[in-house]
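#struct-help
A.M.: can someone run this one for me? Single chain, 312 residues.
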Amino acid sequence: MTVNKVVGLEKGAFVDGGFDKAQFQSAYGICVLPNGNLVVVDRAAHRIRLVDFINKTVKTLAGCGEAGFGDGAGDKAKFNKPYAVVADADGNLYVSDPENQRIRRVDAKTNEVSTAAGTGKMGFDDGPADKSTFYRPSGMALRDGNLYIADAINARIRCIDLKSNTVSTVIGTGRTGHKDASLRESEFNHPAGLAFEASGTLLIADQGNNRIRRADLKENKVTTVAGTGEQKTIDGEGLKAGLNFPALILAASNGTVIIGEWGRPAALRLMDTKTVVSTVKGVKDYRGLALNSQGQLFASTDSHIVRIDGLL
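D.P.: on it. Structure tokens below:
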């Protein structure tokens, strides 16, 4: 395994330009576009940025750099510490904007920013997207025209039907706790990262519970697949393994699950198809993770982006 820097300098700042000069102030969530380029949430810069591998440049897609809320043209829109980003098949972006309690959309062709869901008020309301409320929406995952959102403080997994523009709750009671049960009777503690497996099951990094949960949307059940609940980094079989504040999660095509921890010391963990958890040696504290179609893993480390080869 090798870790190769793609772009960014050790010192964080906001600078667009060529790979040799571009900088990130605080690179967080990342995703891969259909054309293979990367999108990076530059959280402290309140911007959404593009890493263009063909032209070897970094440019800003959206965000004027001023913390706040405002829809509109990309360079005039305002975000407030955006967190995560996902891309649909057409390259449209969905950004969780937890300080604004909203999900934002960036149009692939025009970079126009609009609000996909949320009024800006902290709360819990399902229904029409423009009347729905969230409480710190965090990680997201797209599947079959639906955008699933970890609504962290509400301890629920919410869903935006992108065709009807309606929001519903699919998982969780809203009570903070740890309970495996049916989808709507299960309990979580600050769910953070989401990822769909090839089978259609949804993996949830249950950060506050230090566990990985699996939601079977067809069978209507939630189970715990890894973690004792103690905040410790311990390798081993799923329910005997210790996890340290898991925040990020990816599902690789070979069935391996990649987990990014935010505890101290932070670690990158792997869970194999038998739910055995191991620690990847020699990697740093990552704020975002993304896999491309070739199975290459990209990670954000606050001030720069790296590619991790030979991991899977």
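A.M.: thanks! The chain is about 0% helix and 45% strand.
D.P.: also worth noting: The mean pLDDT is 96.
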